[in-house]
Amino acid sequence: MEYSAGLSDLMGVPVWLKLESLQLTGSFKIRGAMFAISKLQEDVITCSAGNHGKAVAYVKKGATICVPRSVDRSKLDAMVRMGADVRVSEFDGYDDTQDWALEIAAREKKYFLSAFDDDAVMAANGGTVAMEVLEDAPEARTFILPVGGGGLSAGFAVWAKDRLADAAIVGCQHILSPALKMSLDAGHAITRLPAVETMAGGVEGGIGARTFPVLEPLVDSVALVSEAEILEGVRWMIAHHQYLIEPTAAVTIAACITGKIDATRPVVVVVSGRNVSMETVREILKK
Questions:
Q1: CA neighbours within 13 Å on the CB side: how many for 195?
Q2: Distance (Å, rounded) from C-alpha 142 to C-alpha 270?
Q3: Where exactly does CATH 3.40.50.1100 map onto the chain?
Q4: What strand order describes the sheet that includes 2-3?
Q5: Residue 210: what pLDDT?
Q6: Could you say which architecture CATH assigns to the domain 29-113?
Q7: Binning pLDDT at 50, 70 and 90, where does residue 83 land?
């Protein structure tokens, strides 16, 4: 946890960063991978936009990891270096790649471990983060989270709302892939969305069929940010905190610095990961 003077000034309340970008393997995903795989005996296959796959590769040597062809190069290279059986799909989007991974799992008789739609993953990825946040910032009442498939946000919301009746959960998403917002409007999980061109691959695609029913009654609002705002969030973190974070992690920062969150009580912003290639960094910084 780190206090953010810059965000506190902008938002008018004390703001802390929960720096999961400093986690082992570079994101919060190591929590869910370790806990879920500790409960399994089978050979594992998974689908990942990058961070979950990197975590699984670290925990389960030789695991099969399916990734979209748009995966960030740094994440792909890390999985290969750790000895994973990495298979790159012909699809840019997460949802189509997951369908392909499920077909492989059935054919090769391997256990498919979802990056988010799994009780153990939700509990570890989100619940353990919330436990630490509430311990380290007991005065915080507004919690700003990135939402992709919903594993982090669902697990976090369960723990936070159980301990704090007045907790406010804010989910942040890419405006071109707002699965949580669309699901809330529809009253059911939107589990598939068309692929969009974005550097924030971790928040692209549909929400989980298991995570949404958990999150639906607990989330208080959704903030949507554009690609340009996300990249400005990456640059803001370098300028104000000297941390390089990945675009997926910058959705929460972007929502704060663009005034899309109206907070009246102390805030914790979850910064989910740092895994980003040099090519992507160059592109972000030259804009």
A1: 17
A2: 11
A3: 2-23+119-286, 29-113
A4: 2-3, 15-19, 267-271, 142-146, 168-174, 221-225
A5: 97
A6: 3-Layer(aba) Sandwich (3.40)
A7: very high
Among the listed residues 268, 256, 25, 273, the one whose alpha carbon sits nearest the alpha carbon of residue 135: 268
Q: Are 1 and 136 in contact (CB under 8 A)?
A: yes
**Closest by Cα among 151, 154, 243 to 202:** 151
- pLDDT confidence of residue 287: 78
Which pLDDT score is estimated for 177?
97
> What are the pLDDT digits (tens) for 199-236?
999 999 999 999 999 999 999 999 999 999 999 999 99
Domain 2-23+119-286: top CATH class? alpha beta
Q: Residues 107-164: pLDDT tens digits?
A: 999 999 999 999 999 999 999 999 999 999 999 999 999 999 999 999 999 999 999 9
Q: Identify which of 188, 180, 111, 109 has the alpha carbon closest to the alpha carbon of residue 151.
A: 180
Quote the pTM value.
0.94
Q: For residues 85 and 62, what is the distance between their CA atoms, to the nearest angstrom?
A: 6
| Residues in a beta bridge with 191 | none
Report the alpha-carbon distance of residue 68 to residue 186 in Å, rounded: 27
Q: Is the pLDDT of residue 65 over 90?
A: yes
CB 33 within 8 A of CB 52: yes
pLDDT of res. 79: 96
